[in-house]
Amino acid sequence: MNDTRQRIRIAEAVSTLNQKYGSKNPSTAEAVPVDVGRIVLALDEFMECVRYLNTRRSSTVLTLDSEAAVQDAIYLMLRPWVLDLVPENPTERIAASRYAIKDFVSRSVKAVIEAKFIRDAAHGKSITKELHDDIETYRSHQHCENLIFFIYDPDVLIPDKAALGRQIVTPRTYAGVPLTCYLIVKP
Description:
The chain is of the alpha/beta class and about 190 residues long.
């Protein structure tokens, strides 16, 4: 399946989401206000979009076999109505010569979206540490008041999803500034 046809089908799925949750009105310059709740709701519909694309034709249309593929699908889902969504930018230097790469940022929503792809059982077991490292990285980032973790776990390799949620989705405040973490895990 060529890349152009895959993008067209993803755009059709995005249109379905836009009808459900609202979208930019093409006849005006005004956009429907976007907040972190709407982004979380849209990401929660990720599997519905994948299912739509993969059952619409006789062959598989969307192959999610890497973190980059998951990031592409998320970007195509959100970008039409999160107009300032920026992919893959290095954040400020966080240590002597270390940078963090955030998957997506929206300054208007003050949100960073981190996409993860669980590649094997060892990664499923260690994802908690990876998420906590991300929290430490973004807790003082000027454009991050909301940190949204989207984890695609196709083989259900995270041992205890509920425990992961209890550890990640908890109120946090750093130097008087709240950081709200969201967690979406999809099989």
